[in-house]
Design a protein that fits this description.
Layout: E1 21-30, E2 33-42, E3 45-52, E4 56-57, E5 60-64, H1 78-81, E6 96-97, E7 103-107, E8 119-123, E9 128-132, E10 139-146, E11 152-160, E12 168-175, E13 182-188, H2 200-205, H3 234-238, E14 241-242, E15 247-251, E16 266-270, E17 277-284, E18 288-296, E19 299-307, E20 314-321, E21 327-333, H4 350-353, H5 385-389, E22 398-404, E23 419-424, E24 431-436, E25 438-439, E26 443-450, E27 454-463, E28 471-479, E29 486-494, E30 528-531, E31 542-547, E32 562-566, E33 573-582, E34 585-592, E35 597-604, E36 613-620, E37 627-631, E38 680-682, E39 697-701, E40 707-712, E41 714-715, E42 723-731, E43 735-745, E44 754-762, E45 768-771, E46 773-776, H6 807-813, H7 827-831, E47 834-836, E48 841-845, E49 860-864, E50 872-877, E51 879-880, E52 885-891, H8 898-909, E53 916-924, E54 927-934, H9 939-951, H10 977-991
Antiparallel strand pairs: 1-2, 2-3, 3-7, 4-6, 5-8, 8-9, 10-11, 10-17, 11-12, 12-15, 13-14, 13-16, 16-17, 18-19, 18-25, 19-20, 20-22, 21-23, 23-24, 26-27, 26-33, 27-28, 28-31, 29-30, 29-32, 32-33, 34-35, 34-41, 35-36, 36-38, 37-39, 39-40, 42-43, 42-51, 43-44, 44-48, 45-47, 46-49, 49-50, 52-54, ...
Helix pairs in contact: 9-10
Length: 992
């Protein structure tokens, strides 16, 4: 029996009379049913023609006021679609709807203006399906999201893209903590942002958006001709907006395209008397595109995804090559794949990328789970692409286009930032290759790196300059000391950063202010975190979700604030860290030889896990037969290209199969220069981390294999305030040579990875292998060449984050793939042991700061015995490799504590302790010569201040117990070096 019911509670139609004919289509694709409904509305008569793939018995046809959202669990419920209003004057009976058979039903005397933008529901005793009613072709969709003020929620606008004069469907979902049932609403173009609307009166006074100069005024009512109303006079044309329940409205004068469109205008809601008001910008959805790119183990190709809005299907284009009958399943997995670090690293395993993305908890082991390519998209896991489109079994390649109704790029269940895994065609369905789903639009990425007692990271990614869009969030946390896992920790964003001068103890979190909640607890992220013990393989150590209200740009950005994790008592701090911008990476190599000149840029956008590197270049003089490669070592100090080492090959590739990027040595980039096309993309060219190309050499090689031009690969500095910091350890004694360290200090205080160039040898000239080398906590105090207790003054390894509290746990977990588990000073485990006498080696350390509260400058580098032995063979202070120093002379003390003297000098000139480093140059005749270095962003100013300070003898007592020697004392037979220092600083300041 066909049952048709009328409920006016949530329908808002304003009858303006109907003439002519409107035709619409609804596409069904759910619950194993596909098909169409063609709806024709002529003079209040609605004709519905149905043709669906499954049979229905005793079916009720319903029209609901809200369009359908495929990305919901209960798609056809009244909660999602609103209450059905449909009540024809002559009910019809449909005993049954037969599969693939056209059924036509007519309903007359409906007295409605349109059904566009609403939804049709077929409801029977055993199945319910629904679909949006709309015109053929694409639609424009816009959103005004209210997150600030006394009203929260959403207002959506949707209109056929073909005509700005067509009907626009408006769906509202607003709510308030106050007892408000309706509000005035209007669109204004008088101001460009909501910041200037600070009161209800200000909202009331705003001019209504009126691009057509309509008369407006009292003639603008819901019953009037809409042309008498200003475009922005929504209350006049539609009535006040409902608060507390979803509603649908139809409007014939609310364009989303054309010169008078409402995009980027402000939607304002307010009380006529009372204090409630709110404002939101109307943002028209841009087409959202994402890409997966494969160049792994012989498999190449792409999977591209495109979705117009949250209410449109996703178009998927797949082009895979190199499958060679070896693959079967392919799926979106929950977590991204990481950057490759070691040759045998598992990049796609269950502990790395997790399982299929399955937000609706479909049971793939259920007997009713459909076979591949045998049902509608909603019956499968969201990420089960091979079941939705068909498997890759027995295919050499695949080139196909698919429309997916269950693969969102918008909203809480977006696939962006996750990974796509291709599986082998074996009984176990083992994982073969994987790559990340990368957004094809500019993004901003932020990071919160925890180091004690919680270690790990929380990454955030959002469309650039779009603070109201979704933010993808990836969490990976552990404890650094092997303690048992704990669950249910509250985590919050706090208003202030962690004070940099404080220790890493939980007490440092007291500087973070209060809970940052500009949205008044409307945040939708998970409220608690689980932190499993280190060594626990439980995948709860990772978590990925998409947050709908978490801005990374604009006035309410979380970047620059702090993230805190609470103890289980929910009142005290467990751990905290700052939220920092994660910069796009940019390196360059400038060639300037006689015959070959030009520049090569390497860039990589920020994001989750493995990213593609783009190569841009402009080189003159590349002759036929020349190739461009990256070698392991930089040019020598004399800029000689004679000793660059081998082609950079951290993954031990022995042959180049011309298929995928990972089959080439990292440094073998010649193929990107042979076609003279720029830019080019490479999925196997790391710009950061242990396998980075930073600091190595880019060289041009002729057909005989000889290097004809070379240059060092450098960080590209975007700001004049960015600084290149260089430090050095100069070894003398049984171990001699240098360790050079390079790092970029950015204007915002963040730092790049540190490049380390080691060139050490045995005094005897012998070659010895596998020497551990470490940064130790204290500088050398004269014992670098003694026979007994050599270098003991340097103390233990530098370990500010207390990773060595559990030695068994440390031995198991510190590795190149788990660097946050390592001591800052454990270079041997982080980057590798060194062979004394083996020549220059270049390493990249992601956590060896040359500036800031945990700087290694002023400490010591120690080299241990061969074959990972414990005895200390040699040591040297880590000092700035800089001309920015002041030389002073002091009376030789019984014992010189360089770090304490540095603290004393820092206090005297108002510097941070870490910004002053003291080097003991020599002691002769009770006189000790010292160099005082100044580092950090204020180095020049501090040097100038100290030069003035030391020039005044009255200040000498402030350096007690150390006794500076006056300039005019008998010790000075030559002009004082102090004066030279002052002149140097003054000249530098004048030049700057």
């Amino acid at each position: 029996m066909l049952l048709i019911m009328l409920k006016w509670i949530v329908l808002v139609h304003f009858f303006q009379g109907c003439s002519g004919q409107e035709s619409f289509v609804s596409e069904f694709h759910m619950e194993e049913v596909t098909g169409k409904a063609i709806l024709s509305l002529i003079d209040n008569t609605l004709t519905v023609s149905l043709n669906v793939s499954k049979s229905f018995e005793d079916t009720r046809i319903e029209i609901h006021p809200l369009w359908m959202d495929y990305d919901t669990a209960d798609k056809c419920s009244d909660q999602q679609l609103g209450t059905s209003w449909f009540w024809p004057t002559r009910p019809s009976t449909i005993q049954s709807i037969r599969a693939n058979t056209l059924v036509t039903v007519t309903f007359s005397d409906l007295n409605i203006s349109t059904v566009e933008g609403q939804s049709i529901v077929l409801r029977s005793s055993n199945k319910t399906i629904c679909a949006t009613i709309q015109k053929e072709g694409e639609y424009k969709t816009a959103l005004a999201r209210f997150t600030r003020g006394s009203v929260s929620g959403y207002v959506y606008f949707r209109q056929a893209a073909a005509s700005s004069a067509g009907s626009t469907r408006v769906v509202t979902d607003l709510y308030s903590r106050d007892s408000i049932s309706s509000l005035r609403w209007k669109i204004t173009g008088a101001v460009s942002n909501c910041a200037s609307i600070t009161s209800r009166q200000a909202a009331l006074d705003l001019l209504i958006y009126n691009p057509n100069n309509a008369s407006d005024g009292v003639l603008c009512t819901p019953q009037s001709n809409s042309k008498q109303c200003a475009v922005g006079n929504l209350s006049g044309r539609l009535g006040d907006v409902s608060v507390g329940q979803s509603k649908g409205y139809s409007d014939n004068d609310l364009p989303l395209t054309g010169e008078t469109n409402i995009g980027n205008k402000l939607l304002v809601v307010y009380e006529t008397d009372g204090s409630a008001y709110a404002c939101a910008i109307i943002k028209i959805f841009k087409v959202r595109n994402a890409l997966v790119k494969f160049s792994h183990d012989g498999v190449t190709g792409t999977a591209s995804f495109s979705q117009n809005s949250p209410f449109d299907p996703t178009v998927v284009q797949i082009n895979f090559q190199g499958l060679n009958n070896n693959s079967k399943g392919f799926h979106i997995h929950s977590w991204p794949t990481p950057t490759k670090i070691t040759p045998d690293q598992d990049l796609c395993g269950a502990a790395v990328t997790s399982g299929h993305f399955n937000p609706y908890n479909k049971n793939v082991n259920s007997p009713i789970y459909p076979q591949p390519d045998a049902s509608t998209d909603d019956m499968y896991e969201v990420g089960d692409l091979s079941s939705k489109y068909g498997t890759l079994a027995n295919l050499q390649s695949l080139n196909g286009t698919y429309t997916d109704w269950n693969l969102p790029l918008f909203g809480a269940n977006s696939i962006i930032g996750r990974s796509l895994v291709i599986h082998h065609n074996d009984p176990a369905g083992s994982r073969w290759v994987c790559a990340n789903v990368r957004p094809l639009y500019p993004v901003v990425t932020a990071k919160a790196i925890f180091k004690y007692p919680v270690i790990g990271q929380i990454l955030f990614m959002q469309e650039m300059e779009e603070p109201d869009t979704e933010t993808s969030t990836f969490i990976k946390l552990d404890y650094n000391d092997g303690r048992a896992g704990t669950q249910g920790h509250l985590w919050k964003i706090y208003s202030h950063p962690v004070a940099s001068s404080l220790s890493i103890s939980p007490q440092s979190c007291n500087s973070t202010g209060t809970n940052y909640d500009p949205f008044e607890s409307l945040l939708q992220r998970p409220k608690t975190l689980n932190i499993p013990s280190v060594g626990n393989a439980d995948v709860t150590s990772k978590f990925f979700f998409t947050d709908l209200i978490l801005p990374l740009s604009g006035s309410q950005s979380i970047i620059g604030r702090s993230l805190v994790i609470m103890n289980l008592d929910n009142t005290t701090f467990l751990s905290c860290t700052n939220i920092e911008l994660m910069k796009d990476l940019a390196l360059y190599a400038q060639l300037s030889s006689k015959d070959i000149k030009g520049i090569v840029y390497f860039t990589q956008t920020s994001g989750f896990g493995a990213q593609e590197t783009t190569i841009n270049y402009n080189i003159a003089g590349l002759q036929t037969g020349y190739s461009v490669k990256i070698f392991e070592l930089p040019p020598s100090d004399s800029h000689s290209c004679d000793n660059l080492g081998p082609v950079f090959n951290p993954f031990n590739i022995t042959s180049s199969i011309s298929m995928s990027d990972d089959n080439y040595q990292v440094g073998n980039i010649a193929r990107f220069f042979s076609s003279k096309q720029s830019p080019a993309g490479n999925l196997n060219l790391p710009l950061a981390g242990v396998t980075s190309i930073l600091g190595r050499s880019l060289a041009v090689v002729n057909s005989d294999g000889a290097v004809v031009a070379c240059t060092r690969i450098e960080n590209y500095l975007n700001s004049s305030l960015d600084q290149q910091i260089t430090a050095v350890s100069r070894f003398t004694g049984d171990v001699n040579g240098t360790i050079l360290m390079y790092q970029t200090l950015y204007a915002d205080g963040t730092m790049s990875d540190t490049t380390i160039l080691v060139d050490l040898k045995n005094l005897s000239g012998t070659l010895s292998y596998q020497h551990n080398w470490h940064t130790h906590s204290s500088p050398v105090n004269g014992d670098n060449t003694v026979s007994s207790g050599r270098c003991s003054s340097t103390g233990p390894h530098f370990d500010p984050y207390k990773t060595m509290m559990n030695e068994t746990n440390y031995a198991n977990k510190c590795s190149k793939q788990n660097l946050l588990q390592c001591e800052v000073g454990d270079q041997a485990k982080k980057v590798g042991a060194y062979d004394l006498g083996g020549g220059r080696r270049l390493y990249t350390d992601i956590d060896l700061p040359l500036s800031g509260p945990f700087t290694v400058q002023g400490r010591a580098m120690v080299v241990h015995d061969q074959e990972h032995g414990a005895p200390r063979l040699g040591c040297a202070d880590i000092i700035p490799n800089s001309d920015l120093f002041i030389t002073i002379f002091i009376k030789t003390p019984p014992s010189l504590d360089k770090r304490e003297l540095a603290k004393t000098i820092a206090k005297a000139v108002g510097a941070n302790n870490e910004d002053v480093v003291v080097e003991n140059v020599a002691s002769v005749n009770e006189k000790t010569e010292l160099k005082v270095y100044f580092t950090g962003q204020q180095g020049l100013i501090l040097a100038s201040e100290f030069a003035k300070f030391i020039a005044d003898k009255d200040n000498y007592k402030k350096l007690s117990p150390y006794q500076p020697i006056p300039i005019n004392s008998s010790y000075h037979k030559v002009p004082s070096i102090i004066v030279i220092g002052i002149l140097f600083v003054s000249k530098t300041l004048m030049l700057s």
